[in-house]
Write a structure and sequence with these properties.
Layout (H helix, E strand, L loop, with lengths): L1 H10 L11 E5 L3 E5 L4 E4 L2 E4 L12 H7 L3 E3 L5 E3 L5 E5 L2 E2 L4 H10 L5 E7 L13 E7 L6 E12 L3 E13 L2 E12 L1 E11 L2 E11 L2 E12 L4 E13 L2 E11 L5 E28 L5 E25 L5 E28 L2 E24 L2 E4 L5 E20 L2 E21 L6 E21 L5 E12 L3 H4 L3 E5 L2 E4 L7 E12 L3 E21 L3 E26 L2 E17 L5 E18 L4 E10 L2 E3 L3 E3 L2 E12 L4 E8 L6 E8 L2 E9 L3 E11 L22
Length: about 725
């Protein structure tokens, strides 16, 4: 049944024979043009997913919306890829997202669709952008109304899945004379359930790990800002973003240990991990100055300060049982205090000026990062805590990145060439303080890195007419390790598995070449080849018999050939379709050490389709779905296919100022994951799902002046460093 549904969804765009205009002209007291924006647009080398125009976006968080965005994939470990390439940089309003992996996922889950205007996808950023992010850029733009007077909107909703959840959002703007004040707020309250299994065969033993995870953290975020137009040329602004994540959590895990030859159960381990206190705060402060004159000269400068604070406390109860699941053979309890303080300071300046038939661009940037991570682990005995010095540690990491770039473009008739070069100097020093397991003495381990890199970019364009646009692009990018990945200390995840950072982890580099075609407003197509070297991924290895350690390592190189096709059309005035197909061939050449090598390859197809139906002047319905064929993630783990289907309807009320929405996300509860690794005598697989099938009901209301002026574009000086907080 599901294959039939997806086949129908995928085949609909091929039936389109004509593209209808999106704008209609209505005669009222005066002539006005009313434009209906498409759900997906293609412009200036980027794809824009207009979230505010999507019915099924209701009640979705930013992470769920990314999974529906054209060419975007989010794997089970919350790593984001664009057009098959990992190493994506995520921005929010051009500002740093402060995190990566699970921490980034937590932030994205706190951003609700009611506050999101659009998601911009830039697969081939130029030298003007930070070199970090070999997979491209994803920029999440929050709503900002710049009309005169007081205006805004408010939204609220309920979600019904395994447990009920609530969301709320508020956007406000006040513009008068030379001042513009703006802000927004949103929250999402409720429990988030997840179930996942981890099964492995190691040293003749079957280890079957089954977990139920309940996340009770409540995300809240808000943004405040002000702009002042000194005169027609000079503008200054201040802005603050805050993202707060707080609340408890609980995981209950049962591990079954069996003999691999006979399948006979030999023992069990029951573990409860109680995260009784979790506080994570991300904040960014920005001061911006902009000069712009009538000749096209533009100068901007930004001062930034950002910080991340985490205070996580948990207690782990371990109970060892015989095969009868009743008789206890051993037990122990650990308490952990995990504190992280990361401060990021940034300054940047950019300049551009028209010259004859083109423009020149130049800029400089400096960032300083101070990361301080402290882990205290206590053995709990007789209700008392005893510090385990051999398992506790402090890791401080300081990094400075200095950058400068120059770029120019020139137009010759129908041809246009843009070329640029970016230089980045990295200076990094880290030190681990811990107590030696062997001697019991205090030890320290140094991490020192110094490297200067050059990152060229080029784009050659040919536009034979207004409709057709051809391009050839090249860029070189870097992905630096996260601060957590560089911490060489070992963290125990449970009795049989642990995580250890790698102080000698090197950055990975990529070179990409893209051939593109764009039929304005109708079709976008690109073919990209990317070669990545020094690729780093988490590697799982056997230790001490049936135990396993995960460590990030540079394991080899990757070849990726990707074809991306996107289309947005209206076969009938009341029916519009946006579709994206991303097909790629991926080959990973893995080298663990001198005797262990692997060559893994896969052909993968991603499909994303959204259909919107105008049932009448006030009512819209939407059917959207996505499909992901088997892929390779984490370097060498193969995944199975997954898919989901979403349906929804909305109606305008209260003189079209209010909107009532109802929909079902993941209608058939098929958004599940499954991965397998079988290499070098270690076989494991994992599978799981979360509370994704939900009935969602929502209401939003706009007030004040809704005629929009153009919002001022701003970016921050902390684009790349902040994304490496994990």
């Amino acid at each position: 049944m599901h294959k039939f549904i997806l086949l129908v969804l995928a085949s609909l765009p091929t039936c389109v024979t004509a593209q209808k205009k999106d704008s209609t002209i209505k005669e009222l007291k005066e002539i006005s043009i009313v434009s209906k924006k498409k759900t997906v647009e293609f412009k200036d080398g980027k794809v824009v997913y207009n979230v505010s125009n999507s019915v099924n976006a209701m009640g979705s968080n930013a992470l769920e919306l990314l999974k529906r965005s054209p060419g975007v994939m989010v794997d089970p470990t919350n790593n984001i890829s664009l057009n098959g390439k990992s190493g994506v940089t995520v921005y929010i309003d051009g500002k740093p997202s402060y995190m990566q992996g699970d921490a980034l996922a937590a932030l994205l889950k706190s951003l609700q669709s009611a506050n999101i205007h659009s998601i911009e996808l830039l697969p081939n950023p130029s030298s003007k952008y930070d070199a970090a992010g070999s997979g491209g850029i994803i920029n999440i733009r929050l709503k900002k109304n710049t009309a005169s007077g007081l205006n805004g909107d408010i939204a609220a909703g309920m979600h019904f899945g395994q447990t009920p959840k609530t969301e709320g959002a508020l956007n406000l703007n006040y513009r008068t004379g030379k001042f513009n004040l703006y802000g927004n707020y949103n929250h999402y309250f409720g429990y988030h359930n997840m179930e996942y299994d981890f099964y492995r065969i190691q040293e003749g033993e079957i280890i079957d790990n089954r977990t139920r995870d309940v996340d009770m953290r409540n995300p809240v975020n808000f943004k405040l800002g002000a702009d002042y137009n000194i005169n027609s040329r000079h503008t200054v602004g201040v802005m603050m973003n805050a993202n707060l994540y707080f609340g408890p959590g609980m995981t209950n895990t049962t591990t079954y240990l069996s003999d691999a030859a006979t399948g006979q159960l030999t023992s069990m381990l029951k573990a409860t991990n109680d995260y009784y206190s979790q506080k994570q705060n991300w904040k960014n402060y920005n001061i911006n100055y902009q000069y712009k004159d009538t000749s096209g000269r533009l100068f901007t400068t930004d001062l930034d300060y950002g910080y991340y604070r985490a205070r996580i406390k948990n207690i782990l109860y371990n109970h060892f049982l015989k095969a009868d699941s009743v008789t206890e053979t051993d037990q122990y309890t650990l308490r952990t205090f995990n504190n992280s303080d990361i401060n990021i300071y940034g300054i940047k300046a950019d300049y551009e000026q028209p010259v004859q038939r083109g423009k020149i661009y130049a800029g400089v940037k400096a960032n300083v990062v101070a990361s301080d991570n402290r882990v205290q682990i206590f053995d709990v005995k007789d209700r008392k805590d005893y510090l385990n010095e051999s398992k506790s540690n402090t890791f401080r990491y300081d990094e400075k990145v200095y950058a400068a770039y120059a770029m120019a473009d020139q137009q010759w008739g129908k041809w246009k060439l843009q070329a640029g070069l970016r230089l980045e100097q990295t200076v990094a020093d880290g030190v681990l303080h811990a107590k030696s397991l062997a001697t019991g003495k205090d030890t320290s381990q140094q991490v020192n890195n110094r490297y200067l890199d050059f990152f060229p970019s080029m784009q050659l364009s040919f536009r034979p007419s207004e409709l057709h646009h051809f391009s050839l692009l090249y860029n070189r990018k870097i992905d630096r390790p996260t601060y957590t990945d560089l911490n060489p200390f070992s963290y125990q995840l449970d009795e049989l598995s642990s995580w250890q950072g790698n102080a000698f982890l090197r950055p990975q580099y990529s070179n990409s070449v893209t051939v593109g075609y764009n039929a304005t407003g109708i079709l976008s197509a690109s073919l990209t080849y990317t070669h990545r070297r020094d690729m780093f991924v988490p590697v799982s290895d056997s230790i001490n018999g049936n135990k396993m350690v995960m460590t990030p390592k540079n394991v080899g190189s990757q070849h990726l050939l990707a074809l991306n096709l996107s289309s947005s059309v209206s076969p009938l005035p009341w029916w519009s379709i946006s579709a994206n197909v991303n097909a790629f061939y991926k080959q990973n050449l893995i080298t663990f050490d001198e005797r262990r090598h692997a060559r893994l390859s896969v052909n993968t197809v991603q499909l994303n389709v959204q259909q919107v139906f105008d049932l009448d002047k006030k009512t819209q319905a939407e059917i959207s779905g996505n499909y992901q064929s088997p892929d390779i993630y984490g370097g060498f783990q193969r995944s199975k296919h997954n898919w989901q289907l979403n349906v929804g309807v909305q109606r305008k009320v209260l003189k079209d100022q209010g909107t009532v929405r109802i929909g079902i996300n993941d209608l058939f509860q098929t958004a599940r994951w499954y991965g397998v690794r079988d290499f070098d005598g270690l076989y494991y697989r994992n599978k799981g799902y979360e509370d994704s099938r939900q009935l969602r009901i929502g209401f939003s209301y706009r007030f004040g002046n809704v005629k929009l002026a153009r919002a001022r574009e701003r970016s921050s000086g902390l684009e790349s460093e902040s994304r490496r907080v994990k």
